[in-house]
Design brief:
Chain lengths: ~290, ~375
């Protein structure tokens, strides 16, 4: 079990995280917050790249800083930005990282090809990475995080640069993996979290403000999300003035506005909608 | 050990290593004194070594003087060199030309003994040398007198002395260039690619920085060792190895005044040791400069002056070991104590340890 206990972190005088406490057991956690809210900082604290100013992080009750290598060897980490050597093939790169992770040499080659197959890169396993697209590089990053049967998988913006097909494949993969390990998925792409997360962790104003399942979070907006079809720009402008618009789209020559309101506006054609996580995200960080 | 091996492999990328090897070999062949060694004058000393061994005692010296008379007879008797027509004939004849250079070599040895400069051969040194020795410390003066008043006359050649004076500096420069070429891009690549967050989150953790510094030190030692091997090969190809057992302590054209008696072979081994030491030191210096700065230019600006001073100092250790008439200049005077290069290396090792320990506490942003 991973315990984050009253952790705070500042960069100089700027406080980024304040008094964060969470207990994480096996399962999938989506860490959701806008850019710059401290998601990456929290993940870097968990993987010991940063030290907390206050509080501590415990793995099965022991402080991670003291556990050192024995803690880091159970981590699979995909940083938001990770360096790679263009002159390496994915196999060479993963072989190097396997050495850093202390994975045994025995059966390593098979393991490398297996993870490359998992992320759909087995056909370019021996191609230099200088020829790779951003999405392919991201998949190499995911592959290295998956190597070594980690008990704690930390993924910072893992779907950045992936095409829809790869995103779907990736979501299925981590849903499967979260059955017997802790998977923390940090993103600002709400749909990624909504489709895979068991629980959603939300950061706001340097604090952890939500730690619930996606459905429980959505229920907070039950009866407060509406849609209406408007035909003129004046109607749309009037509605935008009165209510918080969640989305707008054009359909058959008219505009459909989705909005948040504590009470029904009482407009003609107004329709109550089931809320989703994106609605909550927009309302919470408006 | 496995990670260390991987880091070394990153350092010695095939293209760069091969390029460096070829550059070193080309520089040695084109610039080194060894490559210019087999001129006829030094061939004469080679002949003497083959005939008499590495040194001459009094009896062998007398035999050598008799041999000189024979050579002169072969050349046409006293005054042979003043006849221009005759001279051209002699130089066209391979065997007679060899006699010319043998005579020349023997006359140089005679002059050294006659003027008490270089090797007095158990005689009292001249007043001129005694006068010059007054500017030295008593220990240095005693050492020089001991070298000069030798019982065994070494048969080293001026070419050997030139090799000892100039080749080490060239090798040193090559090693320093090698360290720069290998280490600066290696250290800066990881820094610029921001690989640290991924590396440090793995089992190896911040120990990776220690391993990288160790890999740099190993690369410095390897660059020095390869340069030394190339130089040894060049010495062997040019027939210089025949002087392996010849003593090289001396004054003037055929020796350098070292604190201890050294043969040419011992000098080479000592020099290889110093070169490896210099390689490791230069590597640590480059690694630290790259770690503290973010760019190639800044790292080079930081490392170059220190490398230049260190290089000059190391050179002074071997080429100007005693403070005679030209050696008492900074940093030669500073480095003249053989322990100083070791002290510099120890200081750099300590500095890198401090930097790494500070890094261990620093956040990886």
């Amino acid at each position: 079990m991973l315990t984050i206990s009253e952790v705070s972190k500042s960069y100089g005088k700027k406080r980024v995280l304040d008094d964060i406490s969470i207990e994480l057991e096996n399962g999938l956690y989506g860490l959701l917050a806008p850019n710059g809210a401290g998601k990456t900082t929290l993940l870097k604290l968990i993987v010991t790249l940063l030290s907390p100013d206050r509080g501590e992080i415990l793995w099965n009750g022991a402080p991670v800083q003291k556990l050192g290598a024995s803690y880091r060897e159970i981590i699979g980490y995909l940083p938001q930005q990770f360096g790679y050597y263009k002159y390496n093939t994915p196999v060479q790169y993963l072989d190097y990282l396997a050495a850093l992770k202390g994975l045994p040499r025995e059966g390593l080659k098979e393991k490398i090809f297996s993870v490359l197959d998992t992320v759909g890169l087995s056909d370019v396993a021996q191609v230099k990475m200088r020829k790779f697209s951003g999405g392919m590089i991201q998949r190499v990053g995911i592959a290295q995080a998956l190597m070594g049967d980690s008990r704690l998988l930390i993924l910072d913006e893992p779907t950045a640069g992936l095409d829809p097909k790869e995103r779907a494949r990736f979501r299925n993969l981590i849903a499967e993996m979260s059955k017997n390990r802790i998977v923390i998925l940090s993103t600002h792409i709400v749909s990624d979290v909504e489709s895979v997360s068991g629980r959603v962790l939300m950061l706001k104003d340097r604090k952890l403000v939500r730690n619930q399942s996606a459905s429980a979070l959505c229920s907070e907006l039950e009866g407060k999300v509406f849609e209406i079809r408007v035909k003129t720009d004046d109607q749309a402008a009037a509605l935008k003035k009165e209510h918080f618009i969640l989305s707008e789209r054009n359909e058959a020559g008219s505009m459909i506005l989705r909005y948040y309101s504590e009470q029904p506006a009482g407009l003609e054609g107004e329709r109550l909608c089931p809320p989703n996580l994106e609605d909550l995200f927009l309302v919470m960080y408006r | 050990m496995r990670v260390f091996g991987k880091e070394c492999r990153k350092l010695f990328r095939p293209g760069r290593s091969l390029g460096l090897l070829l550059f070193m070999a080309a520089a040695l062949v084109l610039i080194s004194r060894t490559a210019q060694f087999p001129d006829t004058h030094d061939k004469a000393y080679e002949e003497l070594v083959k005939e008499y061994g590495p040194t001459l005692d009094q009896a062998e010296y007398q035999t050598l003087l008799k041999a000189k008379s024979v050579y002169i007879e072969e050349l046409g008797g006293e005054g042979w060199s003043r006849d221009r027509v005759h001279w051209a004939e002699i130089m066209a004849d391979e065997s007679k030309r060899q006699f010319v250079f043998l005579v020349d070599a023997i006359e140089r040895i005679e002059e050294e003994i006659q003027f008490g400069y270089g090797f007095a051969f158990e005689k009292e040194p001249t007043e001129t040398l005694k006068e010059q020795l007054r500017s030295c410390t008593p220990q240095e003066a005693a050492r020089i007198l001991f070298i000069v008043q030798t019982k065994e006359l070494p048969l080293s050649s001026p070419g050997i002395c030139e090799i000892m004076e100039s080749d080490p500096l060239l090798l040193l420069i090559l090693v320093l260039i090698g360290c720069g070429v290998l280490i600066l891009p290696y250290q800066l690549l990881d820094k610029n690619l921001e690989t640290a967050s991924l590396m440090v989150s793995t089992r190896v953790g911040r120990r990776i920085f220690h391993l990288k510094i160790r890999a740099c030190a190993a690369a410095g030692a390897a660059a020095a060792f390869v340069a030394a091997l190339l130089h040894l090969a060049l010495l062997w190809l040019n027939g210089v190895m025949i002087f392996w057992n010849v003593p090289v302590c001396g004054l003037g054209l055929r020796g350098i005044p070292f604190w201890v008696d050294l043969t040419f072979g011992q000098y080479l081994l000592l020099w290889i040791g110093l070169l490896v030491l210099a390689g490791i030191t230069a590597a640590l210096l480059c690694a630290l400069a790259a770690r503290l700065s973010g760019s190639f230019i800044t790292a080079l600006t930081l490392a170059l002056p220190a490398l230049a001073i260190y290089g000059w100092g190391i050179h002074a250790c071997t080429a100007v070991p005693l403070s005679l008439w030209y050696g008492d200049t900074f940093p030669a005077s500073l480095f003249r104590t053989a322990g100083v290069p070791l002290l510099v290396l120890a200081a750099l090792t300590l500095a890198s340890e401090i930097v790494l320990r500070l890094d261990a506490r620093r956040d990886i942003l």
